[in-house]
Amino acid sequence: MQMDGRGWGVWSLSSSSFIMGTGSSILSALQDLFWLSKSKVEKQLQIISVLQWVLTFLIMGIACTLILMYILCTDCWAIAALYLAWLVFDWNTPKKGGRRSQWVRNWAIWRYFRDYFPIRLVKTHNLLTTRNYIFGYHPHGIMGLGAFCNFSTEATGVSQKFPGIRPYLATLAGNFRMPILRDYLMSGGICPVNRDSIDYILSKNGSGNAIIIVVGGAAESLNCTPGKNSVTLRNRKGFVKLALRHGADLVPVYSFGENEVYKQVIFEEGSWGRWVQKKFQKHIGFAPCIFHGRGLFSSNTWGLLPYSKPITTVVGEPITIPKIDNPSQKEVDFYHSVYVDSLIKLFDKYKGRFGLPETEVLEVN
């Protein structure tokens, strides 16, 4: 009995140790699994956040138009009719500064969007709230992802970095003719890139406004490719003339990495492909690009998702611009050259910090 007791005691002790050890191992494994799952969930949320914006950029306007037309042909036609009546009443709102929503700009989805690449906003100088500004954003890239994340959301803290400054990202006016899409864009502080809209913001909306214009536009997007730093700027002077007419300071902005997130088929000048692109650009305002990123489920396949490459947007030093109601061509040319020099200096100063060799040169076309 004593031996049995001692044997039972030894067996009990060994069993307890085994159970405790196994329990600890299982707990450790579960903890590892939990953290792994959390990491995977965050990555999937990042992918979803970027995918919804890509689909918004590519098809939301057309899709919402078709859906609205379909609803008009159903028993729910009154809903579509009410929206169309509202659309007529609200038609000029985009030209008057839009209708931004801080709630939308602060959605958590934009933070996942930011972390997918990731995207950073770098401030180099303070901006006075008593002045208005025109930011020249370079380069365009395929979709201007850095411009959207930094200035149409609060994901990178633009309002904290530049307190008292209201950013307005300017995009194609045609987007604001699309039902639903127009309201979605306005909620982020996006406005049409036309004279009426810009004149209103810079002259009838007080001070502390900053309009972000992607100066190179569609023409620049046709030449963007990984490893290339070039901007279409040499003959783009309209934004300088607007700045002079309103006395709005010019601010050069360069986004390192914007061209790295998509790969594009570049058509040579004189080719049929480039001819088609230029025709679209001339008559519609945008140029169709043949591009690809990564797949939805694997980075080793092709798809519409951008590659997760870092994008760092550097906001340069403001250039003080005088107010001249009718600037001469000589005055426009002078301040345009000052702007170009300032952009090149900004690029040269920060290129080494964000992965480019010191020998890299910004190509200005």
Automatic annotation (TrEMBL):
Primary subcellular site in the record, as a coarse category: cytoplasm
A GO biological-process term: glycerol metabolic process
Pathway the protein acts in: Glycerolipid metabolism; triacylglycerol biosynthesis; Lipid metabolism
InterPro entries cross-referenced by the UniProt entry: DAGAT (IPR007130)
Sorted UniProt keywords: Acyltransferase, Cytoplasm, Endoplasmic reticulum, Glycerol metabolism, Lipid biosynthesis, Lipid droplet, Lipid metabolism, Membrane, Transferase, Transmembrane, Transmembrane helix
Catalysis performed (reactions): 2,3-di-(9Z)-octadecenoyl-sn-glycerol + (9Z)-octadecenoyl-CoA = 1,2,3-tri-(9Z-octadecenoyl)-glycerol + CoA; 1-(9Z-octadecenoyl)-glycerol + (9Z)-octadecenoyl-CoA = 1,2-di-(9Z-octadecenoyl)-glycerol + CoA; 1,2-di-(9Z-octadecenoyl)-sn-glycerol + (9Z)-octadecenoyl-CoA = 1,2,3-tri-(9Z-octadecenoyl)-glycerol + CoA; 1,3-di-(9Z-octadecenoyl)-glycerol + (9Z)-octadecenoyl-CoA = 1,2,3-tri-(9Z-octadecenoyl)-glycerol + CoA
GO cellular component entries: endoplasmic reticulum membrane; lipid droplet; perinuclear region of cytoplasm
Lipid metabolism found in the keyword field: yes
Domain of life: Eukaryota
A GO molecular function held by the record: retinol O-fatty-acyltransferase activity
EC number: 2.3.1.-
Membrane topology qualifier: Multi-pass membrane protein
Keyword ATP-binding: no
One Pfam family hit: DAGAT
Enzyme class at the top of the EC tree: transferase
Membrane-spanning segments: 12-35, 47-71, 77-93
Similarity annotation: Belongs to the diacylglycerol acyltransferase family.
Official protein name in the record: Acyltransferase
Source organism: Gallus gallus (Chicken)
Native organism taxonomy: Eukaryota, Metazoa, Chordata, Craniata, Vertebrata
Record gene name: DGAT2
